[in-house]
Design goal:
673 residues; alpha/beta
Length: 673
């Protein structure tokens, strides 16, 4: 929130100066007390602080000589106050000499500052208005100052400017303004200025309008009262019954006056008087008294009823006005939230050259500029979540030395009675001796040879073997290659159908979808290329825009009229050309359309298939259910979105989530290949 206006500070300073001048008169007049001098010290400190704030806010400020003198006196008192005793006569003499010397210059400059107008255009227009609804320019300036203070919670109530007489409509509106919004307005200076300007404008217009309406409503009664006032009592009583009827026939009158009871009472009193002369004199006195009392009563009733009518009208209109004002603020907050990624998430000044608080320097004017977003904010949120970011996966290979325990197995052969025959050997093991050797025993001449071989363990025998399983472990170091997956955001090309068949809800859906995807792409620092098409194309490369106006350009691009026929060929051709460029060679292509169009030419269909073999994905969001099936067959995925069908909406959400998962797997396979 900005500092207090120089005009208000100047007004406060003049009040302090007037108080100091009175203190001089009192001191010089004999009130040379420490209390009086303390008042001079305190007021001098207040004046110095006020002038300091003026010089902060206004480049013209206070002339150096006057400012330096007051500031010197201010510092003198502020630093010494309460720390040592003053010599009242000496200190007062020094103070008065310096103060009175610069007083003419100071007062002249302060009076100039109080006559200045507000820097805010709307407030300045209010102050300069020729209408006399709130009186003079000076009165209207005081209203502005009081209104500004009412929206600044940092100013103590005792220090806030007071509303001048006759400005109750502004005061009441400011007091009834919901304080829940104060903190938000405090951080949005221009928005706070707009709220105050709206209150001033509404108050002036409403007061004029209600006063005019009251004049019309009570015109007949006012004419009657004016006529009644012009009569003498005797003239009134000559036609009292006619006046009575005329008054009671007025549509604004709620309580009637009747002469019948009065005349009966008057005649009863007069009958008691015997003298005709005295009776006539008494009658005249009674009539005069009654007549003027009647006029006073009728006028009081008129003003009361008119005031009540006026206040009731203002209250009803104020309630409606504040509701609309709150709606504006809430829409501003909503718009700020919708567009926050364009301001905050992308780093300082990416889409708007603002500081940390988005919209801080923007007022209600931005609502009209981005009304399209507000109208479809729920859809925008849906698309933003579902069409957030497409990603590709790359593999990073890192070499790492790791220690591991390796368990190994080995087998040691051993002799066995039974097992696998692995060969022959010599032995005296009868169980293993081959049949040809045992046959020696059947021949008497060779029997001795058998026993000789047996004794020498030279009988030819089968050799059996069974492997014994041994395990052992060892710790060793080795170098391995470790694969890591890393998401890399890739560019995206969006083709949005702007033909006449998209008019209405499909148009809004396409716009919001495009904005949501572009928003997500920019948030992820992805390159994004937009193509709008009907019979011709228009393109917008968001990555090449000036960072300070990207959002404005994007919204302007999306707000273009939808008309003409539908021809997707130029858009697909442009997309294929972009896929050959360095910036968009790894892009995915998304087309948003109702696909009420002719078939895709064969050469484009072949080119799309070739790009698909390289890993490029072509997706479509099909709005409605009248798409050319032959056309959408060229796309990897066709996501049907019927905005009029809840089941279609649910299926659309599911498809988007499914698409994200499948896309990642596909990319991995392509990279691995």
């Amino acid at each position: 929130m900005k500092h207090t206006s120089s005009r208000k500070l100047a007004t406060q300073s003049l009040e302090i100066v007037d108080r100091l001048k009175k203190l001089i008169e009192n001191f010089d007049g004999g009130e040379k007390s420490e209390t009086t001098f303390d008042s001079i010290k305190n007021k001098t400190i207040e004046l110095g602080n006020s002038l300091k704030e003026i010089n902060k806010n206004d480049s013209r400020g206070i002339p150096h000589k006057a400012y330096d003198t007051i500031h010197e006196l201010r510092n003198r008192f502020a630093h010494r106050k309460g720390t040592e005793n003053f010599d009242i006569t000496t200190d007062y003499s020094i103070w008065k000499q310096k103060f009175t010397k610069v007083l003419p210059t100071l007062e002249k400059r302060l009076n100039q500052l109080t006559s200045t107008y507000s820097k805010n255009t709307s407030k300045r227009r209010f102050e300069k208005s020729l209408t006399q609804t709130f009186g003079s320019e000076e009165t209207k300036k005081r209203i502005v100052d009081a209104l500004e203070d009412s929206f600044d919670d940092n100013i103590p109530d005792a220090n806030k400017s007071k509303y001048p007489t006759g400005s109750d409509i502004v005061k009441d509106t400011a007091e009834q303004f919901d304080k829940r919004y104060n903190q938000y307005l405090f951080s949005h200076e221009e928005l706070s200025e707009d709220v105050q300007s709206e209150i001033l404008k509404w108050s002036e217009e409403t007061k004029e309008g209600v006063e005019f309406e009251c004049s019309k409503q009570f015109a007949s009664e006012k004419i009657f009262l004016d006529k009644l006032e012009s009569l003498s009592p005797s003239e009134f009583f000559k036609n009292v019954s006619l006046f009575e009827k005329e008054y009671n026939d007025l549509n604004t009158v709620e309580r009637f006056f009747s002469m019948t009871k009065y005349l009966k009472s008057l005649n009863g009193d007069l009958d008691k008087i015997e003298s005709a002369e005295e009776k006539e004199k008494k009658k005249k006195t009674y009539q005069n008294s009654y007549f003027y009392a009647l006029i006073k009563s009728l006028k009081e009733s008129y003003h009361t009823r008119r005031s009540e009518f006026e206040q009731k009208s203002i209250d009803n209109l104020r309630k409606k006005f504040l509701e609309e004002l709150y709606k504006k603020i809430e829409n501003f907050q909503k718009l700020e939230q919708l567009l926050r990624p364009f301001v905050c998430d992308l780093g300082h000044g990416y889409l708007w050259d603002l500081s940390s608080s988005p919209f801080r320097n923007l007022g209600f004017d931005v609502l009209a500029k981005y009304s399209m977003l507000l109208n479809k904010d729920h859809a925008l949120q849906e698309f933003a979540e579902l069409l957030g970011r497409q990603s590709v996966t790359s593999k990073e290979v890192e070499k790492k030395l790791i220690e591991e325990t390796v368990i190994s197995s080995t087998y040691h052969p051993k002799n066995a009675q039974h097992g696998n025959i692995v060969g022959f050997e010599y032995s005296n093991d009868i169980n293993r001796v081959v049949p040809s050797e045992t046959g020696l025993m059947n021949d008497p001449e060779l029997e001795d040879l058998f026993y000789l071989k047996f004794a020498e363990k030279r009988l030819l025998s089968y050799s059996y073997s069974d492997n014994e399983h041994y395990t052992y472990s060892e710790t060793r170091r080795k170098e391995i290659e470790e694969s890591k997956e890393k998401d890399i955001t890739g560019p995206i090309i969006i083709c949005v159908d702007t033909s006449g068949s998209m008019h209405g809800t499909p148009e809004q859906t396409a716009k919001v979808a495009t904005l949501a995807i572009a928003k997500s792409a920019l948030k992820s620092h992805r390159k994004c290329y937009l193509i709008s098409f009907s019979t011709d194309i228009e393109t917008l490369d968001l990555s090449k825009l000036n960072k300070s106006n990207t959002l404005d350009t994007l919204v302007k691009f999306l707000n273009k009229s939808f008309n003409g026929g539908t021809d997707a060929a130029p858009a697909l051709s442009e997309s294929l050309n972009q896929l050959k460029t360095e910036n968009y060679k790894n892009a995915d292509v998304l087309m948003i359309s109702d696909f009420v169009m002719a078939n895709i030419p064969q050469h484009l269909s072949d080119a799309i298939k070739e790009e698909q073999t390289k890993g490029t994905s072509f997706y479509s969001i099909v709005i409605g259910e009248s798409a050319n099936k032959s056309t959408i067959e060229s796309f990897d995925e066709n996501i049907i979105y019927n905005p009029y069908n809840e089941l279609s909406r649910q299926e659309f959400h599911r498809k988007i989530r499914e698409l994200s998962t499948r896309k990642k797997g596909k990319r991995e396979r392509n990279i691995s290949a």
